[in-house]
Write a structure and sequence with these properties.
This protein is an alpha+beta fold and about 210 residues long. It is about 10% helix and about 30% strand.
C-alpha cells in the first residue's frame, strides 16, 4: 500500500514532463506567440490595406516671386494687373472715332533719367479710370510708342480701348513706361516710368513726366 502511494506522484511528474517536451521550442529572436491564429493564405489579400491616394500638385497658385499666373490665350487681362497687357491685342482701328473720348498731351523725360532712355526704346502708354481721389483703377486704353525726340506727343481714344466696347470717359490717369526689353508683360530693373495727374475726358495738354527708374 505504501509503495503504490509513492508511485502516484512519480507517475504524475512523468506525465507533466512528457507534456512540456511536446511543446515546440521558441526560435531565438522570434516574436512571442499570439493568441489569435494566422489567417489562411487564401484570405490574406482580402484584408490588405488600401493603396495610398495619388497626390496632385497645387493649381491656381501664384508663381515664384509673387507673380500672377498667365491668363489663357484670348482672356482679357485683369484690370488690376497692367503687366499682363499686350498693346498689340487692343481694339482694331476700325472702331469709329469719338471726339468726346480723347486724351492727348505730351511725354516729357526728366533730366535725371535721360541716361536711362535711348532713342527707339519701347514706351507703353496706359489710360486707367480714376476714382474721386485720383487713385488709378481699371485699364481703359493702351498704346505702344517708341522713344524719339523729346517731348513726345500722344493721343489716346476709343480706338485704343483694351477691350472692345470699353468707354474712355470720366476721370482718368495716364501712365507711361519705357520698357527696355520691349515686352509689355514684364517689368524689369532699369525701366523708366511716369504718371499724370487725374484728368476728365475729353482732355488735352496732359503731361506725363518720366522720372522714376524701377
Amino acid at each position: 500500500m505504501s509503495v503504490s502511494r509513492r508511485a502516484l506522484p512519480l507517475a504524475a511528474f512523468a506525465l507533466l514532463a512528457l507534456g512540456c517536451k511536446s511543446k515546440p521550442e521558441a526560435q531565438p529572436g522570434a516574436p512571442p506567440p499570439s493568441g489569435i491564429p494566422p489567417l489562411p493564405e487564401q484570405f490574406a489579400n482580402s484584408f490588405a490595406p488600401p493603396a495610398e491616394h495619388p497626390t496632385h500638385p497645387p493649381t491656381g497658385a501664384a508663381t515664384g516671386g509673387g507673380k500672377m499666373p498667365q491668363m489663357p490665350p484670348g482672356h482679357p487681362a485683369p484690370w488690376n494687373d497692367p503687366s499682363q497687357i499686350d498693346p498689340n491685342d487692343t481694339t482694331p482701328g476700325d472702331v469709329p472715332f469719338d471726339p468726346n473720348a480723347v486724351v492727348s498731351g505730351v511725354l516729357r523725360l526728366d533730366d535725371k533719367v535721360k541716361g536711362k532712355v535711348a532713342e527707339g526704346d519701347v514706351i507703353f502708354l496706359v489710360a486707367r479710370g480714376a476714382d474721386a481721389s485720383g487713385a488709378p483703377g481699371p485699364v481703359l486704353a493702351v498704346k505702344k510708342m517708341n522713344a524719339g525726340k523729346w517731348p513726345l506727343s500722344f493721343t489716346l481714344d476709343a480706338r485704343d480701348a483694351m477691350v472692345s466696347g470699353t468707354k474712355l470717359h470720366g476721370k482718368v490717369v495716364v501712365t507711361a513706361r519705357v520698357d527696355k526689353d520691349g515686352d509689355a508683360i514684364s517689368k524689369n530693373p532699369g525701366d523708366v516710368t511716369g504718371v499724370s495727374r487725374a484728368v476728365d475726358v475729353p482732355a488735352a495738354k496732359v503731361v506725363v513726366t518720366l522720372d522714376t527708374v524701377l
